[in-house]
Amino acid sequence: MSTRERDPEFEALLEFLRDERGFDFTGYKRPTLMRRIAKRMQEVGLDGDYAAYREHLARHEDEFARLFDTILINVTSFFRDPAAWEYVAEEIIPRVEEARTPGDPIRAWSTGCSTGEEAYTLAILLAESIGDEEFRQRVKIYATDVDDHALGAGRTATYSPAQLEPVRDDLREKYFEPQNGRYAFRPDLRRSVIFGRHDLVQDPPISRIDLLVSRNTLMYFDTDAQQRILGNFHFALRDDGFLFVGKSEVLVARSPSFAPVDLRRRVFAKVPLAAARDRAVPRPRLEEEPADDETERDEHVRVAGFETSPVAQILVDRAGRLAAANIAARVMFGLGQRDIGVLLQDLELSYRPVELRSRIEQVHSVGHPVTLRDVEWHPGAEVRFLDVTVQPLTTPTGEPIGVAVAFTDVTRYRRLSDALQDSKREVELAYEALQSTNEELETTNEELQSTNEELETTNEELHSTNEELETMNEELHSTNEELETINDELQQRTDELNDANVFLESVLASLSAAVLVVDRDLRVSAWNDAARELWGLRSEEVQGEHLLNLDIGLPLEQLRAPLRSVLAGGEVATLDLAAVNRRGKQVRASLRFAPLAGHNADVRGVIVMMEASDG
Questions:
Q1: What does the pLDDT look like over 104-117, one tens digit per residue?
Q2: What is the per-residue pLDDT for 68?
Q3: Suppose 353 and one of 105, 249, 377, 431 were both cysteines; which one would form an S-S bond, judging by CB atoms 3.0 to 4.6 Å apart?
Q4: What's the CA gap between 269 and 211, in Å, rounded?
Q5: pLDDT for 242-294, tens place per residue?
Q6: Burial degree of 470 (CB within 10 A; 0-12, 13-18, 19+)
Q7: Helix, strand, coil: what percent of the chain each, to 5?
């Protein structure tokens, strides 16, 4: 996407991210960047509206972190592209060691390190090459990224068994220690790996680096940003340093600052700036010119050579008059014999195709030829291009006598040159398009890999959730069976209770004596039909009521003492009282008080049996 085709709302969003959070994404490739941001916008329900998403970011501080996690694709692994790492271990690291004297520090830089796998890969190879003790004393590996969350994971230096699958078994046992189901990089070597936040576009580079690893990082930036970053890489490296990039990053191969060491594995050596300046261009030796005073030269040969020269030439004397014009000049400019001897200023040739008078005066003043390249001339509908050379003419004694003007038609060469330049531009554009497509493909692959990993994680979570649901379903099934069993038991108990109630009601109904039962609070819990017949109150009217509060023809207050005595565990008590039955007739009531025993022989209430006789 060219600058003039860029969406102003999207560019405003990038400027907002830069100003508010210091993340400058303006150097990133627009198609990839727009695709990643669109994914996050879709997740929050603001698909396509950059202005609305900018307001959403301003209102929700936590959204910045989620957006950056989406943009910064952290796809990495140990020994990624094993053949390239094997070449680095066998060819490049030994050359780095040879370039340093014993005891000198070795400095490496892993850019775009993500969660640190490539930085620790480099640490393993260096430790394998120079030994653990030398590594601890001499090596510093700088691991940088713009993603603080990924840097935090790298600092912990712990990885899952799946992440360590690319590491050989012997290297895994030597450099990693088991820790709570994961593996931690050895602490004594971990101190040599320094993690820090670094923006390749904005921040100054780390200096005096022997080996710089930047794999699949440049491909996210546009061409201008890549050129700036490569300039920083050139500054960062020592003159004998090496650059190790990803397989899709081909711009470095065209940079004059780096020479390929192994193009297939993308390893390059720094080209020091002095190398270009020190190149000397040998000057060709000039042949000796023939003597100007050869008076024996045949005049006719000289004139014939001037006339038949394929290059249009004219001679102008010191007085500014046209002294001669060969055939090619006469045909090209339409000159005739009548024009010979005429002042040049009176001829169209003096200002077309180029202004000649000032150039002639310049040649007379400096005494050196003047050449004009690619002069555009329009003799008609066709455009032609000429190289015009104004050469001073002098006598054998050095006295100026005029000038010779040569008009060389370079139209054919100019068109060929333009066609060649157009072809080169087309090839360059095609190459850049191919490079961009390749990098886009690699970026898409990275995104697909990241998405695949997310889907695998989601699938594992769903599988785990499904297992939990199955377990819960089994538990619910078991609970349901228990509830059914309990329900059956309750139903059985209910039936038994109903039978007991029917039995009790039948017993109470069959008694000729009035019977009532009170609980420990003296509230009526049972009242048979004989009691209803005697006192005139139905069972539903007295159920739950305090016995001493009932309105019947019995002096109930006198029942309090025997009731309390029985509830306290006393003997069965009797009482004779004068009363009035429901018909208003005076009767003599005989009351007998017996305890209502519970399961543990405790007194749960009192049974009162009442018989009335005529008083």
A1: 999 999 998 988 99
A2: 67
A3: 377
A4: 9
A5: 999 887 666 676 778 898 898 888 899 998 864 433 333 333 333 333 444 44
A6: exposed
A7: 50, 20, 30
10 Å Cβ neighbour count for 153?
16
Q: What DSSP string describes 550-598?
A: --SSS-GGGGHHHHHHHHTT---EEEEEEEE-TTS-EEEEEEEEEEEE-
Report the chain's terminal Cα–Cα distance, integer Å.
119
Nearest to 573 by CA among 604, 597, 607: 607
CA distances from 379 to 347, 412, 433 (A): 15, 16, 41
pTM, entire model? 0.48
Q: Do the Cβ atoms of 75 and 449 come closer than 8 Å?
A: yes
**SS3 of residue 508 by DSSP:** helix
How far apart CA 231 and CA 226 sit, in angstroms, is 9
Please state, in angstroms and rounded to a whole number, the distance separating the CA atoms of residues 561 and 424. Answer: 124
Q: Which residues contact 117 (CB under 8 A, 6 or more apart)?
A: 76, 77, 78, 80, 159, 163
Question: What gap in Å lies between CA 202 and CA 395, rounded to an integer?
Answer: 66
Strand order in the sheet with 176-179: 158-159, 182-185, 176-179
Rounded distance, CA 545 to CA 523, Å? 5
H or E segment and range at residue 68: helix 63-71
Q: Kindly tell me the burial class for residue 545, based on how many C-beta atoms sit within 10 Å of its own C-beta (0-12, 13-18, 19 or more).
A: middle
Contact at 8 Å (CB) between 213 and 233? no
Reference 157, options 197, 134, 188, 126; nearest CA is: 188
> How many other β-carbons are positioned within 10 Å of the β-carbon of residue 142?
20
DSSP H/E element including 386: strand 384-394
Distance in angstroms (rounded) separating the CA atoms of residues 316 and 356: 11
What is the C-alpha separation between 66 and 78, in angstroms, rounded? 26
Residues 115 and 160: beta-carbon distance below 8 Å: no
User: C-alpha 121: how far from its chain's center?
Assistant: 22
Q: At residue 390, what is the residue type? A: V
Cβ atoms of residues 548 and 556 within 8 Å: yes
Where b means 16+ CB within 10 Å and e means fewer, 405-425 reads: bbbbbbeeebeeeeeeeeeee
DSSP 189: H
Cα–Cα distance measured from residue 456 to residue 466, given in angstroms and rounded to the nearest whole number? 15
Looking only at the bridges linking them, the beta strands covering 182-185 and 158-159 are antiparallel
Side-chain-side CA neighbours of 497 within 13 Å: the count stands at 6
DSSP 366-385: H-S-EEEEEEEE-SSSS-EE
pLDDT of residue 143: 93
Q: DSSP string spanning 69-114?
A: HHHS-----TTSSHHHHHHIIIIIHHHHHHHS-TT--EEEEESS-T
Instruction: Output DSSP code: residue 523.
Output: B
Q: Note every long-range contact of 221-226, with CB atoms under 8 Å and residues 24 or more positions apart, other chains counting.
A: 221/27, 221/28, 221/29, 222/27, 222/28, 222/29, 222/30, 223/251, 223/432, 224/27, 225/27, 225/28, 225/201, 226/251
- Strand ranges inside 21-175, DSSP E: 106-110, 139-145, 158-159
Other beta carbons within 10 angstroms of residue 15's beta carbon come to 14
Residues in the chain: 615
